[in-house]
Design goal:
The protein has helices at residues 3-13, 19-25, 46-50, 97-106, 112-126, 143-149, 153-165, 188-195, 204-207, 223-234; strands at 86-92, 135-138, 168-169, 174-176, 199-201, 211-219, 239-247. It is 37% helix and 15% strand. With 251 residues, it is an alpha/beta fold. A 5-stranded parallel sheet has the order 1-7-6-2-3. A two-stranded antiparallel ribbon has the order 4-5. It starts with a helix and ends with a strand. The structure holds zinc ion (2 copies).
Length: 251
């Protein structure tokens, strides 16, 4: 009998079987490092959170990528025209952050958004530009993707960031009108075309002359954040910043 069926069977058989008994029989494990979770650890162990490769000081002032040398921007943004003012990323797109994002996006482990959202909120506070902004907007999902997944991971993160930074969360000012293809196999030009006119502003009054932080899970080429920033700026926003969990480098 599988573990889930066995737990269900136990629960059906006895009223005295509670969660701590189930944890005693089947101790919960961290799905990333497979070590047994300690008391108060929920889903992911503290050791894995402590191993996130954070980007704290030596980063590109434009795209948030880790930077080598003394230049203000990096080789990845060279030649690109970004509409956003600046992006900050919590960490590099590498293990264990990759696994956390995968669990959050594709395995319905939405609890992870709570912890990662706090780390993003702290990063926002620590940044001299992002901390001065007026509001938070999550990258919207198209309604078809929203139906499939059941939740928008960027909105879950934004709710936590908003609650700890006290910045207004605006989830109703921009809509994804185009069901875009997955960006992962596309090159930079194909990504730009894929996202062209993907977003539409539904509440112009809300963002007029406002400074905005757009929240997303991963930034790779930056085309999603760029197209969204362009749409918001054309609609009257003063400036747009990005805050993401991970900065992946596209090659
Ligand atoms: Zn772990
Ligand atoms: Zn850069």
């Amino acid at each position: 009998m599988q573990k889930d069926k066995l737990i269900k069977f136990f629960k059906q058989q006895s009223q005295i079987v509670n969660q701590s008994f189930i944890n005693f029989i089947f101790p919960p494990f961290c799905p990333i490092c497979e070590s047994e979770l300690k008391h108060r650890e929920r889903l992911i162990c503290e050791n894995c959170y402590s191993h996130i490769k954070t980007i704290e000081s030596n980063f590109c002032r434009k795209c948030g990528a880790p930077r080598l040398g003394g230049r203000k921007t990096c080789k990845y943004c060279k030649g690109f025209t970004f509409h956003f003012s600046k992006v900050r990323a919590l960490g590099i797109f590498s293990s264990p952050l990759v696994e956390m994002i995968h669990l959050l996006k594709y395995d319905r482990k939405t609890l992870i958004a709570e912890r990662l959202g706090i780390l993003m909120g702290n990063l926002l506070f620590s940044d001299s530009d992002l901390s001065q902004t007026d509001m938070i907007i999550p990258v919207p999902l198209h309604k078809t993707r929203m139906r499939e997944r059941g939740y928008n991971q960027s909105l879950l993160l934004s709710r936590i960031v908003s609650s700890i930074t006290r910045k207004e969360l605006c989830n109703d000012v921009i809509i994804r009108k185009k069901a875009t293809k997955s960006q992962t196999t596309l090159n930079h030009n194909e990504r730009e075309n894929n996202l062209k006119d993907a977003f539409i502003v539904s509440n112009f009054g809300k963002i007029k002359n406002k400074t905005i932080v757009v929240i997303d899970d991963v930034m790779t080429s930056g085309t999603t954040l760029n197209e969204l920033s362009k749409t918001l700026l054309e609609a009257g926003a003063e400036s747009v910043y990005g805050l993401v969990l991970a900065r992946a480098i596209s090659v």
